């Protein structure tokens, strides 16, 4: 067996299961899960219809690069959303089966297996980044995200030696779990570092379409490249998905875009990886990427939930509106694991301790007193959950 498998930590939800193993939730109260970032808004009906109408395409083997129509549709969406010059769908876009699969596979293709190879990521982070790095034979480095840095990674704390060893930098903007958005100027600073020290930036932008000001969408890495005249997107790759944008987590549809030379090598890896998107999923994805009205409505639902929940929690829990995304990242009055256990035992509400999404560093664990709350359920459930959390906190 691959000995690097022994380096993997249990997934956060396995840790959560173990945390609650000796507890019994009150059966008189319905279970409300705020722990998993799985969208619960209805999937767009026209996408479901597209799936049903194209089931006959299951008789065909799909191309690992996807259809030309899907790639060109994605290219047009990128151009419009991020004010980009013309995207070449033949070499700058690659459809994938969701960002989780692609973020993991990308490290396997990018990392050169040599002593000292380093993969950097935010801390807290999406655990796929860590597993991808370890199974690619690299060591991991974590960049703390704290209140002092606006919940953004403290990139200034990274030394030149670390940048020199770095082969791959994962970033996530808007962040999971913090919801913080990396400003355009900081993205351009990172692009400069990537070119100076010759590492690749993998920008996980799967929450980019959930924001609260329609006039100010979060900037993207390719947008930052284009704004500085770097239209070859050298050293830069972005990852997008329909899971959050279009409430289609089960479709497993996303894409990778950016540096053509990197994508050419990644496409070669994926040819052997055997993970082409099913043909009817590709047709349905085209329909989803071509429509924005359902995305606007999606954002409206989240705005309504944040307003309602934050209004209830005001004054009882230290929590604020994120820049974007659908998570709350409150400060807890006790260690996060203790808070999660008591909330589950008393109110039948599940939240995810922040320390399960972060690693200990020389400055400690930046999420020991944080929990992640996903406002993915309908507004009635979110309001009910907020009311129970308030009662619990006031009773302590």
Structure description:
There is one protein chain. With 396 residues, the protein is of the alpha/beta class. It has 2 domains: 3-42 and 294-395, Aspartate Aminotransferase, domain 1 (Alpha-Beta Complex); 45-291, 3-Layer(aba) Sandwich (Aspartate Aminotransferase, domain 2), CATH 3.40.640. The chain has 14 helices and 12 strands. The strands form 3 sheets. Strands 2-8-7-6-5-3-4 form a 7-stranded mixed β-sheet, with helices on both faces. Strand 5 (166-172), helix 7 and strand 6 (200-204) form a beta-alpha-beta unit. It is globular and about 60 Å long.
Strand content: 5-15%
Shape: globular
- Residue stretches low in confidence (pLDDT < 50, at least 5 long) are none
Order of helices and strands: HEHHEHEHEHEHEHEHEHHHEHEEEH
CATH C-level category of the largest domain: Alpha Beta
Structural class: alpha/beta
Determine the CATH topology of the largest domain: Aspartate Aminotransferase, domain 2
Domain tally: 2
Helix fraction bin: 40-55%
Please name the fourth-level CATH homologous superfamily of the largest domain: Type I PLP-dependent aspartate aminotransferase-like (Major domain)
Distance between the termini: 49 Å
Report the CATH architecture of the largest domain.
3-Layer(aba) Sandwich
Strand order of the largest sheet: 2-8-7-6-5-3-4
Describe the sheet with the most strands. 7 strands, mixed
């Amino acid at each position: 067996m691959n000995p690097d498998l022994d380096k993997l930590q249990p997934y956060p939800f396995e840790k959560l299961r173990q945390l609650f193993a000796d507890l019994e939730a009150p059966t008189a109260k319905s279970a409300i899960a705020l722990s998993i970032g799985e969208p619960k808004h209805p999937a767009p009906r026209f996408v479901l219809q597209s799936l049903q109408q194209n089931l006959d395409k299951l008789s065909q083997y799909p191309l690992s690069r996807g259809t030309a129509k899907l790639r060109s549709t994605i290219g047009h969406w990128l151009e419009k959303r991020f004010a980009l010059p013309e995207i070449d769908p033949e070499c700058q876009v690659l459809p994938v089966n969701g960002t989780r699969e692609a973020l993991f596979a990308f490290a396997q293709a990018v990392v050169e297996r040599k002593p000292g190879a380093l993969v950097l990521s935010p801390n807290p982070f999406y655990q796929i980044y860590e597993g991808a790095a370890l199974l690619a034979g690299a060591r991991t480095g974590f960049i703390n995200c704290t209140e002092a840095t606006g919940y953004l990674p403290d990139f200034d704390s990274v030394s030149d030696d670390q940048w020199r060893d770095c082969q791959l930098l994962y970033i996530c903007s808007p962040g999971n779990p913090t919801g913080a958005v990396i400003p355009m100027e900081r993205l351009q600073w990172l692009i400069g570092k990537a070119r100076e020290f010759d590492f690749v930036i993998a920008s996980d932008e799967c929450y980019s379409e959930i924001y609260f000001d329609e006039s100010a969408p979060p900037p993207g890495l390719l947008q930052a490249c284009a704004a500085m005249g770097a239209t070859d997107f050298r050293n830069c790759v972005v990852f997008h998905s329909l899971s959050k944008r279009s409430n289609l987590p089960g479709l497993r549809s996303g894409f990778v875009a950016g540096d053509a030379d990197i994508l050419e090598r990644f496409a070669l890896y994926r040819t052997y990886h055997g993970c082409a998107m099913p043909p009817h999923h590709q047709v349905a994805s085209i329909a989803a990427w071509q429509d924005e009205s359902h995305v606007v409505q999606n954002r409206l639902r989240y705005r309504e939930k944040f307003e309602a929940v934050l209004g209830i929690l005001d004054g009882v829990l230290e929590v604020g509106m994120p820049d974007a995304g659908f998570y709350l990242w409150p400060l807890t009055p006790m260690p996060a694991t203790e808070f999660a256990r008591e909330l589950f035992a008393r109110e039948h509400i599940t939240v995810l301790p922040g320390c399960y999404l972060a690693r200990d560093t020389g400055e400690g664990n930046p999420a020991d007193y944080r929990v992640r709350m996903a406002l993915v359920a309908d507004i009635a459930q979110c309001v009910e959950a907020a009311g129970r959390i308030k009662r619990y906190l006031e009773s302590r």
